[in-house]
Write a structure and sequence with these properties.
It is globular, with a radius of gyration of 18 Å. Strand 8, helix 5 and strand 9 form a beta-alpha-beta unit. The chain is an alpha/beta fold and about 280 residues long. The protein has one domain: Metal-dependent hydrolases (TIM Barrel). An eight-stranded parallel β-sheet has the order 1-2-5-6-7-8-9-10, sandwiched between helices. The structure holds zinc ion.
């Protein structure tokens, strides 16, 4: 079975050869790979920017350049996305450069010190929509960004109804707000006349849902969303892919086959087809 991991993170030290080696060892054919975040240094530690600073142009560009270099090793297997701080006044320009000049496939965003519905975000949404690329958002409780989960509630993303050609995903099935998340999916589904094939919100199912909640979340998501919009992901790093991916694959396989009872065609959609539609170029 072909496997496309929709959600893998770089730490900025990777090279393309090692990433491909890790994918082969993990049994993964293709990945969406996020750049390192343009962190701020404080006392020798990498920390989020907080309310009073944002990433510099150089920091954004360094993230774009690193992930573009990794992707260039094999752009048919490694789909690079830049994880940026959208509060930077250079965000739109640097993203456009990353996509047009360096061939990146989209961007990754974690709302922190900004809400998805802030008007400040609209030029970036419009640019990605115009470029025909994707935004992969975090949603749900967020670990590692301090007091910022309130920015990531699923309902905050309903504003994207105003960008009708923008394809986007929300990660972690919004855990612990799975029901709210699925209701938001319903809103995007209804906006295209209840046509799943036209629905441009995609569900990034990478864990976030701890194992004890995952079966319940998938039992709700599979029938409501359909496997055509449900994407497999690990939220691993290339260095941990070999160790983590087989565990995630077998856990999801057993939930989908044994608890929910999906067909082989639905499994193929979950592990490959949904992401292929999402990343369509
Ligand atoms: Zn992640």
């Amino acid at each position: 079975m072909r496997i496309w991991d929709c959600h893998v993170h770089c730490d900025g030290t990777e090279n393309g050869k090692d990433v491909l080696k890790a994918m082969d060892a993990a049994g993964i054919e293709r990945i969406n790979l996020f750049s390192n975040y343009p962190w701020r240094e404080e006392g020798g530690r990498k920390v989020p920017h907080g309310p009073s600073s944002y990433a510099s142009r150089e920091a954004l560009r360094a993230c774009v350049e690193h992930i573009a270099g990794v992707q260039a090793t094999d752009p048919s297997r490694i789909y690079g996305l830049a994880w940026i701080d959208p509060r930077s006044p250079y965000a739109v320009e640097e993203v456009e450069r990353g996509v047009v000049d360096r061939g990146l496939r989209g961007i990754k965003l974690i709302p922190d010190q900004w809400f998805p519905y802030d008007e400040m975000m609209f030029p970036l949404y419009a640019k990605i929509e115009e470029l025909g690329k994707v935004i992969m958002f975090h949603s749900g409780i967020v670990y590692g960004f301090g007091d910022s989960s309130r920015y990531c509630k699923p309902v905050n993303f309903e504003v994207l109804l105003n960008f009708p050609k923008l394809r986007f995903s929300l990660a972690h099935i919004g855990w612990p707000w799975v029901d709210e998340y699925l209701a938001v999916f319903g809103s995007f589904w209804s906006s295209v006349g209840y046509d799943k094939e036209k629905t441009r919100m995609f569900v990034d199912t990478c864990p976030g849902t701890p194992d004890a909640w995952r079966t319940d979340a998938m039992r709700k998501a599979v029938p409501f969303v359909g496997t055509g919009r449900l994407m497999f992901g690990t939220d691993a790093h290339p260095k941990s892919l070999e160790r983590n991916a087989p565990r995630h694959i077998s856990r999801d396989l057993s939930i989908l086959r044994e608890v929910i009872g999906v067909s082989q065609g639905q499994l193929d959609e979950f592990f490959w087809g949904a992401c292929e539609k999402f990343m369509a170029e």
